[in-house]
C-alpha cells in the first residue's frame, strides 16, 4: 500500500478575469455591458451611445437592474452571452472536469490526462472517509496509485524502465477522484445552465461544489445578471448538455440494449411519445440532449460506441460533436473494463484487471453499505467503459475526424474515428474521401517537427514518411508557418 496520496484538501476556485469596459468605457462591469447590449436592441442609438448618455446623467446603475430583469431575467439568453468570466480551478477531481466540459458553450484548457500525475493526489470525500468501509477505500485507492507508478516506471532509473507502459495508458487504473487543474471561460447564460445541472440527477458533492463556487463568484461580480428571474434559470431554455450524472438515460438505454457491441454502430432510433414527455414535460436534461440527434423529425441518428472514461475525455473535448451518453451509474454497474494494448502485452496485465475489478467492486460495496452512489462513484477507474452517442456533421468529418485519426492522437479515440471514417466510405458518402488524417487534406502536418522536415526518416509517423517521399506534403507551406513562429 502506498500512503500519503489521499487528501481532503478542498479545490481552489479563482475567478481570474471578467469582461469589463476599457478606454472611455472604463468602469463598466459585466452587469452594465449586458444591460446596455439589451437596451441597444430597442433603441435607435447604439449601446455605446446609450452608455455615454446615461453616464452623463449618473443613471447607469439605476437602469441596469431593471433592464436585466426584463430581458435576461425573462429568458432572453443572448443578453447573458455579452458577459465573460474566466476561472482557474486547482485540484478538482476528474469527475468534476467531466461535468464542466459537457455544456457545449463553455470553453476550457484542461490539464491533459497524459500530463495528470498521481502525485497531485486522490481526493477522499467525507462520505467515504466516514463510511464503514473507509479502510477498504483507502487501501484500494492507494493501491491504484501504486500500480500506476509501477506500470509507468515512475521513480525508476532509465535502464530499469524497459517493461514500463506509456503513462497515458497507466493512468487508466487511476480513479475519477484523481485531482487535476482546469481553466474555464463562460458567459452568464452557460454558467447558469451549469448551475441548473446541479439540480438534476445525482451529481456528486465534489462536482456540485465546484459549480456552486463558480456560480457564486460570478454572481458576486455581476449580481443583477445572475439574479433569478422568471425564465433565466429555466431548463428548457438552454441548449441541452449530455448528462453523465443522470439517474438514468432511458432512451439511450433502449438504444444500447438493441445495438450494444464492441465496435462503432450507426444507429437510427424512432423517438416515441414517452421520450418527448420525459424531455419536455419532466424537463429531464438527458432526454433533451437526446433530441439534438433528431434531424428528420422522428429518428435519433448517430454513432454509438463503448469507450473508456479516459477516452471519453477526448471525445468531449471535441465540442462540435453533439453528444448524449448513458448514466455513469449504469456503466459502473455493468463494470466493463478497457484493457490498453500496451498493458495487455505487459507483465501488468492480470494485476491491472484485478485492480480495476476491485475498484468497481468497491463502488458496489459502498452503495450496498448505504453510501449514496453519487458519493461512491469517484472510486471507479478511468478504465470503466460507458456508451457515448455522437453525431458527426460534414464539417466534423473533415476537421474532427482529421485530428483524431492522426497517428499522434490518443489510440482509443483514433480507433473510434477510423471506424466512423470507414462507415462513411462504405456508404459511399462524399464526406468519406476527406474523413482522413488531416495531413492528407491540409497538405501540412500540424505535428511536424523541424527534424522531420530535414529528414523524413526521423519521423515517428509512417504516413508522414510516405507522403514526404511521394512529395504530397507542402514543404514550402510548412516553412512559411515555421518562419512566423
- Average pLDDT number: 90
Give the spatial strand order of the biggest sheet: 2-3-6-4
What structural class results from the helix and strand content? alpha+beta
User: What would the principal axes of the Cα set say about the shape?
Assistant: globular
Most strands sheet = 4 strands, antiparallel
Percentage of residues in strands: 5-15%
How helical, in percent, are the residues?
40-55%
- Helical stretch tally: 25
Low-confidence stretches: 478-485
- Number of beta-strand segments: 10
Radius of gyration: 25 Å
The N- and C-terminal alpha carbons lie at a distance of: 47 Å
List keywords for this structure.
four-stranded antiparallel sheet, single chain, alpha+beta, 485 residues
Describe it for me?
There is one protein chain. With 485 residues, the protein is an alpha+beta fold. The protein has a 4-stranded antiparallel β-sheet with strand order 2-3-6-4. Strands 7-8-10-9 form a 4-stranded antiparallel β-sheet, sandwiched between helices. It has a two-stranded parallel ribbon with strand order 1-5. Among the domains are: 20-80, no CATH class; 439-483, no CATH class. The protein has helices at 30-39, 47-56, 60-70, 77-80, 94-101, 126-129, 134-152, 167-170, 188-197, 205-221, 250-259, 273-281, 285-291, 309-316, 328-334, 341-344, 349-368, 373-376, 394-398, 400-404, 411-426, 438-442, 450-454, 462-470, 475-483, and strands spanning 6-7, 12-18, 85-93, 107-110, 122-123, 179-186, 265-270, 299-308, 322-325, 385-391. The protein contains 25 helices and 10 strands.
Amino acid at each position: 500500500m502506498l500512503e500519503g496520496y489521499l487528501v481532503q484538501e478542498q479545490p481552489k476556485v479563482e475567478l481570474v478575469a471578467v469582461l469589463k469596459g476599457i478606454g472611455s468605457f472604463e468602469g463598466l462591469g459585466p452587469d452594465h455591458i449586458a444591460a446596455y447590449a439589451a437596451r441597444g436592441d430597442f433603441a435607435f442609438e447604439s449601446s455605446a451611445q446609450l452608455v455615454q448618455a446615461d453616464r452623463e446623467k449618473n443613471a447607469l446603475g439605476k437602469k441596469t437592474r431593471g433592464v436585466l430583469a426584463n430581458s435576461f431575467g425573462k429568458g432572453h439568453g443572448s443578453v447573458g452571452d455579452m458577459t465573460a468570466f474566466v476561472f482557474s480551478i486547482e485540484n478538482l477531481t476528474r469527475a468534476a472536469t467531466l461535468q464542466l466540459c459537457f455544456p457545449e458553450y463553455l470553453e476550457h484548457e484542461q490539464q491533459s490526462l497524459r500530463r495528470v500525475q498521481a502525485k497531485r493526489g486522490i481526493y477522499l470525500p467525507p462520505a467515504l472517509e466516514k463510511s464503514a468501509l473507509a479502510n477498504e477505500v483507502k487501501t484500494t485507492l492507494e493501491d491504484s496509485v501504486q500500480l500506476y507508478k509501477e506500470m509507468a516506471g515512475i521513480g525508476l532509473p532509465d535502464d530499469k524502465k524497459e517493461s514500463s507502459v506509456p503513462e497515458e495508458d497507466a493512468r487508466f487504473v487511476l480513479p475519477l477522484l484523481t485531482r487535476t487543474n482546469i481553466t474555464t471561460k463562460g458567459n452568464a447564460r452557460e454558467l447558469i445552465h451549469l448551475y441548473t445541472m446541479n439540480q438534476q440527477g445525482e451529481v456528486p458533492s465534489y462536482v456540485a461544489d465546484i459549480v456552486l463556487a463558480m456560480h457564486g463568484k460570478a454572481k458576486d461580480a455581476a449580481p443583477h445578471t445572475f439574479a433569478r428571474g422568471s425564465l433565466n434559470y429555466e431548463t428548457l431554455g438552454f441548449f441541452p448538455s449530455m448528462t453523465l450524472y443522470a439517474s438514468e438515460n432511458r432512451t439511450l438505454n433502449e438504444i444500447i440494449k438493441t445495438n450494444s457491441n464492441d465496435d462503432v454502430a450507426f444507429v437510427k432510433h424512432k423517438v416515441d411519445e414517452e421520450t418527448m414527455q420525459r424531455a419536455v414535460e419532466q424537463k429531464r436534461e438527458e432526454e433533451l440532449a437526446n433530441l439534438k440527434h433528431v434531424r428528420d423529425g422522428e429518428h435519433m441518428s448517430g454513432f454509438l460506441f463503448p469507450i473508456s472514461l479516459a477516452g471519453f475525455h477526448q471525445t468531449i473535448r471535441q465540442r462540435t460533436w453533439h453528444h448524449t451518453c448513458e448514466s455513469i451509474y449504469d456503466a459502473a454497474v455493468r463494470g466493463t473494463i478497457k484493457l490498453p494494448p500496451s498493458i495487455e502485452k505487459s507483465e501488468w496485465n492480470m494485476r491491472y484487471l484485478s485492480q480495476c475489478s476491485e475498484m468497481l467492486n468497491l463502488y458496489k460495496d459502498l452503495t450496498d453499505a448505504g453510501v449514496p452512489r453519487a458519493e461512491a462513484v469517484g472510486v471507479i477507474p478511468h478504465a470503466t467503459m460507458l456508451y457515448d452517442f455522437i453525431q458527426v456533421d460534414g464539417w466534423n468529418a473533415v476537421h474532427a475526424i482529421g485530428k483524431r485519426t492522426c497517428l499522434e492522437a490518443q489510440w482509443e479515440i483514433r480507433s473510434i474515428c477510423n471506424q466512423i471514417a470507414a462507415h462513411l466510405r462504405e456508404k459511399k458518402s462524399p464526406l468519406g474521401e476527406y474523413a482522413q488524417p488531416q495531413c492528407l487534406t491540409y497538405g501540412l502536418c500540424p505535428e511536424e517537427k523541424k527534424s522531420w522536415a530535414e529528414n523524413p526518416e526521423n519521423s515517428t509517423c509512417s504516413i508522414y514518411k510516405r507522403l514526404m517521399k511521394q512529395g504530397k506534403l507542402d514543404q514550402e507551406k510548412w516553412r512559411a508557418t515555421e518562419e512566423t513562429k
